[in-house]
Amino acid sequence: MVSAFLNAFRTPDLRKKILFTLGILVLLRLGSTIPTPNVNASAIRSCATAATTGESAGVYSMINMFSGGALLHLSIFALGVMPYITSSIILQLLTVVIPRLETLKKEGGSGQQKITQYTRWLTIVLAVLQATSFTMLAVNGNLFTTCALDIVYSNGIFPIVVMILTMTAGTSIIMWFGELITDRGVGNGMSLLIFTSIAAQFPNALWTIKLQRGWEVFFLVIAVGLVVVAAVVF
Questions:
Q1: Selected residue with higher pLDDT from 18 and 55
Q2: Checking phi first, is residue 74 left (phi over 0); if not, alpha (psi -120 to 50) or beta?
Q3: Which residues pair with 39 in a beta bridge?
Q4: 113 within 8 A of 104, measured Cβ to Cβ
Q5: Counting Cβ atoms within 10 Å, is residue 17 exposed (0-12), middle (13-18) or buried (19+)?
Q6: Three-state secondary structure call for residue 11
Q7: Which among 118, 190, 130 has a CA at the least distance from the CA of 164?
Q8: Are 175 and 120 in contact (CB under 8 A)?
Q9: Helices 189-199 & 12-31, crossing angle to 10 degrees?
Q10: Is the sign of the CA dihedral 106, 109, 111, 113 positive or negative?
Q11: Nearest Cα residue to 26 out of 190, 166, 193
Q12: DSSP-assigned beta bridge partners for residue 112
């Protein structure tokens, strides 16, 4: 596996694609750490830490998984790939129900481009709805039910609209990142973004296991993971 990876870097064109993909993934993780305007970064960090280590940690961890830790911190990429995944599923289901979409699917490349365009527009609509929901939960103090800290600075209309537009724009950028990787990088862009978001939670998940279960279970989980990876690779 290591030799194959080194050989890939010896090929100029493939090396350029790999580096381009890694650069996009770095930008994704960077955007996942930048808070949305009007968000009290220190307060929401404390609330998120308490939520992911408390009694309801499982629920919050599941909600936070596909955003790579960005959702509970209300970053500019807080919504992650969730709107795109949801819109893709909806379009797939509607293809069976709506004859026009089924016809487009059978037309080949041109029809698929139109379906992709519909997916993009539906993604934006869902992003606005989800951004509005999470923003209002944060403004009303219901995002973290066990945390009494004020996680937003202002409850005014303008700051709320800015938060919604920022998270919606973040979803558009993530969608663009996925298409850039597909066109100029390595592999399927959205699949890589989903994997990166999930993998970004591995260290926190492992450390939570250590805090709740102790070192024995912590090393046992790592050992099982290494065995599974070795079995897949070799």
A1: 18
A2: left
A3: 152
A4: no
A5: middle
A6: coil
A7: 130
A8: yes
A9: 50
A10: positive
A11: 193
A12: none
* Tokens 């365009």 -> residue: 117
| Alpha-carbon span 132 to 126, nearest angstrom | 10
Q: How far, in whole angstroms, is CA 128 from its chain's centroid?
A: 16
| pLDDT at residue 58 greater than cutoff 60 | no
In one-letter notation, the amino acid at residue 69 is: G
At 78, list the tokens. Answer: 């807080």
Sign of CA dihedral 98, 180, 64, 220: positive
Query: What is 109-146 written as a DSSP string?
Result: HHHHHHHHHHHHHHHHHHHHHHHHHHHHHHHTT-SSTT
- The amino acid present at 208, given as its one-letter code, is T
- pTM exceeding the 0.85 threshold for the entire prediction: no
Do you know the residue count of the chain? 234
Query: Quick check: helix, strand or coil at residue 35?
Result: strand
